[in-house]
């Protein structure tokens, strides 16, 4: 991730933690430094960066012979489930993006829809393998009631194929028929339901999935949406965001689309499925391979450059990301090992100034944060919650100096003026002892203390004040060391909901700041260091 290059740029390092000089690489043990640039932030995420999706797939959606959606569709999900409500509430707030492939074949049962409201049904000769489906207004009411109770922020993906014809070359032609969407939005406003953003379409950019729409047409439809929203919300606050196109990144298509939607567009969304199809045998290998993970840097970087060099004020979001497409892979994308991929994605996206990251899915498919049948949180749920509670808005450059198998991310802390580090150990044999080093930034200081900095000088470790000499660590490991486990341990204790369906508290362990950070093989560690105050975090 350009880390070595960055490393060369600095001459002076100030170490905070005592370790004997040099580094020893004896059996399964590696000593190194996490290097952090504390001078300025490289990105700034939304307060509610963590987002998850809910999809429309009916129980009949099957991939490679397994049907993994159960009753997890927006049309049939048990909204009365206590764990579900608690899981959403716990984020205060969780962003939820409602959408997916079938959103573009969904009709809303509003006044303009004069036919019976029928569910999706399987038909292999139809686009996406299903007939058109319909959202009953009373279901929309129930959903909004649930979102309100859970305190969720809603992004709704509108049907962008309405009114178009699919040409022989697979391209959708004609303008968007927005009447049905307009009716839904008017109904929503009339009912006082708060929608954080209206998103147009799903995976129709670039080459598209199933069909595609040219950037120029998509831009003009997006402007139509914005005008409509502006007029409907004329006297209504808060105003919703205009979001598009929710597809796969394609440099030329995105560039043209962003040019032509300035200044209409608030958020440009893209989707990520970089690990291959769910059926692939090599998913775990790829998840644990640092150079494979770095394969996404190019996309994040290109989109970041397009936005930086454009007059648009649109921000980048990952609108849907499930890693492995066609519903993921049971015991991989819903197991402990997936937290390496997921947290690495969150860290990398944030470092390229992505504001929000929506995980496919909150529930449904083989990649749910929650188990589709029991609603119990999978390991990634707890990873998401820890990220949400600990990683603050400002993103710092960070890297580990000894091995690519340690992925290091740092943000200003969400809970203090200090910092939070995230370290992922992709190696199954090596325990890492990490010390932390900072570039020599003017104005770097400890709370309650001041220091004169000399190059390569070690700052005396802080002591004297209650609480100051400790940092908070959250170590995540797989139950029985099994990467395919759906049970995760926090500091050695199993995380699970209790019999009332409450999400357990996530308690840190306190570690004396003079100790190096120990990162066990195949483990994930969040480290909150409240007493290190960097210029980028003030
Ligand atoms: C990495 O940091 C350690 C200190 O923990 C140091 O001894 C070692 O020389 C550094 N290695 C590289 C390649 O910079
Ligand atoms: C499936 O869809 C095709 C094309 O729309 C249609 O001709 C056919 O009658 C449908 N089959 C069933 C069983 O509904
Ligand atoms: C657009 O859709 C509405 C139903 O939502 C329909 O009444 C209308 O005729 C359609 N407009 C066009 C131009 O096809
Ligand atoms: C929506 O809010 C307005 C103003 O707060 C109120 O007058 C109206 O009754 C509400 N409508 C519904 C359907 O709750
Ligand atoms: C859900 O949990 C049950 C009980 O732990 C387990 O048997 C099942 O495999 C899980 N389902 C999925 C899709 O992960
Ligand atoms: C650990 O190292 C041994 C010997 O090199 C190797 O056989 C084993 O597969 C490694 N285990 C893991 C989990 O990487
Ligand atoms: C479950 O946890 C919650 C909060 O942690 C607590 O209030 C509740 O009493 C617990 N329920 C049971 C049955 O232990
Ligand atoms: C932290 O560790 C150092 C070195 O072992 C020790 O001198 C100090 O008393 C410890 N601090 C606390 C607060 O326990």
Automatic annotation (TrEMBL):
The keyword Signal applies. Residues 443-456 have a biased composition (Basic residues). SUPFAM superfamilies: (Trans)glycosidases. Residues 1-26 form the signal peptide. Pfam families: Glyco_hydro_79n. InterPro entries: GH, Glyco_hydro_79. Residues 443-462 are annotated as: Disordered. It comes from Cucumis melo. One of its GO terms (molecular function) is beta-glucuronidase activity. The keyword Transmembrane helix does not apply. This is Heparanase-like protein 3. Belongs to the glycosyl hydrolase 79 family. It comes from the Eukaryota. Keywords: Signal. GO terms for cellular component: extracellular region; lysosomal membrane; plant-type cell wall.
